[in-house]
Every structure is written in C-alpha cells, then in structure tokens.
Amino acid sequence: MKLIDRLALILVIVGALNWGSVGIFGFDCVAFLCGGQMAVLSRIIYSLVGLAGLWCITLLFRDRDEE
C-alpha cells in the first residue's frame, strides 16, 4: 500500500473517531485540542480529513493486484 493511501486512511480514521465522539458524547476532539471549530488549525485538520475521504473513494475502485 502506498504511503499516501496509508496517510489517507489514518486521517479518515481520525475523522471517524471525531465524528463518533460528537455523535455519542457531543464532544468535538479536534475543536477541543485546536482551540475551537473555527480555529485555523481545526479548519486545516477538517479539510485534510475531507480530502483524505475523497482520496479513499479511489481505493474502492482499484485492483488489488496493483501492488
């Protein structure tokens, strides 16, 4: 698996855990750690997670024999 694929999966997992904590506990971990939802660092992380999600869509359509 390529490095970018692994990084994308890690970011998607971070996003999933964050949304899980928002849904279950009403607690946004990224906003808490980065100074609020509108903080620059939070927005960067949210954007990276979103881009990683888009990248992971490509994993669904790849042949597994590429490696």
Structure description:
- By secondary structure, the protein is an all-alpha fold.
- The protein contains three helices and no strands.
- Helix 1 crosses helix 3.
- The longest helix has 23 residues.
Order of helices and strands: HHH
Number of beta strands = 0
In whole angstroms, how far apart are the ends? 7 Å
Structural class: mainly alpha
Q: What is the number of independent domains?
A: 1
Estimated helix fraction: over 70%
Number of helices: 3
In short:
This protein is mostly helical and 67 residues long. It is built from three helices and no strands. The relative contact order is 0.17.
Helix/strand layout:
Blueprint: H1 3-25, H2 29-34, H3 40-60
List keywords for this structure.
67 residues; 3 helices; mainly alpha; elongated
